[in-house]
Amino acid sequence: RILEMKKVLSFVLVLSLVLGSFSMAFAAPANSGKLSDIAGSANEEAITVVNDLGIVTGYTDGTFKGEQAVNRAEFAAMITRALAIPESALAGYSATTFKDTTGYGWAVPYLAFCESKGIMLGDGNGNAMPGRTITVNEAMTMVLRAIGLTNNSAFLVGSWPANYVTIAKNEGLYDDVDAVSTVERGSAAPIIYNTLHV
After folding, report:
1. Which of 2, 17, 155, 188 has most Cβ atoms within 10 angstroms of its Cβ?
2. What is the pLDDT of residues 31-61, one digit of tens each?
3. Full-prediction pTM beyond 0.70?
4. CA pair distance 15, 183, nearest whole angstrom
5. How far apart (Å, rounded) are the C-alpha atoms in residues 93 and 9?
């Protein structure tokens, strides 16, 4: 069941937090604590949690900037952090077969990790499109792949994106996610939060 896969992901997160003092998988971000621009937001709890865990973090000026668009490279980094992959492990992902990463050197380990695990497949022509704003359909697909749902899964019925969207809706991943086609930081937070807390 999808729910069981999510429980496994939640277990991984909890284990990482418990062992955090040893593995440093989640070092407290420099800007952890109260963010100045999230009070009253429907996603305040989700934003606070993912910020404090270092998954979708605020900025050094204490803001979160929830209206700012999230590109595909940034979402790959968020997914990787949500899976509690320590920076030391990412050292092994120094190259990717994606051919359009120029200018996104910082993201190569995240893109390479997501590519190697089948979380991000690209456009089929070798491009990750790292600078393109990620769509909600793409984000939902990536989080479901991150918890083990693959294209050949019996859970997937029909064609993309409807097959992934249906499961994401049934599992509550759309809760508190803005009904827009692309992902902003304010929506990325609940997408990740919902995946970790079902």
Report:
1. 188
2. 445 899 999 998 999 999 999 999 999 999 9
3. yes
4. 29
5. 21
